[in-house]
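Please, structure for the following, as tokens.
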Amino acid sequence: MGSTLIETARTAAGMTKDELASLAGTSRPTLSAYEHGRKSPRLDTAERIIGEAGYVLAVEPKTTFHDIRTRHRRVASIPNRLPRLPVGQALATVELPLHLDWSGPGRSVDLRDRGERARCYEVVLREGRPDDIERFVDGALLVDLWGDLVLPAEIRAAWQQVIDRELRT
């Protein structure tokens, strides 16, 4: 269960196995066994170890997608909740994949720039697959841009429902 999570937390914290094992009150061989999947820690044990690395275990709602058809017979993917990205990813400089940016492949998009982010979000919301939406669109930044985006009516209406539902909760 916790092997990937424990190793991810430890390496992100810049800790050695010895350091984390000592802080968490476990042995290095046991920690290594957890990280390599040879042993499975109980949930409270995984939580304690990850906590000593400076992280918390959290339960997040699962994002699911459904497709809608636009009047131009295109398919758009709509999530059940707004995506949330780490700040570094939400404001990164990215290169959109060819299926999203066929007219200008290799062009960088600076998501820190509000105008570039708006154009990127328009393309991703119109043409993107679920993995594109989860990779490039941050829900809070989308809400901030919402009034400025140029989108087909069907896509705007479907996303508006998601935004309204999220803002109510």
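The chain has a mean pLDDT of 93. The two ends are 31 Å apart (CA to CA).
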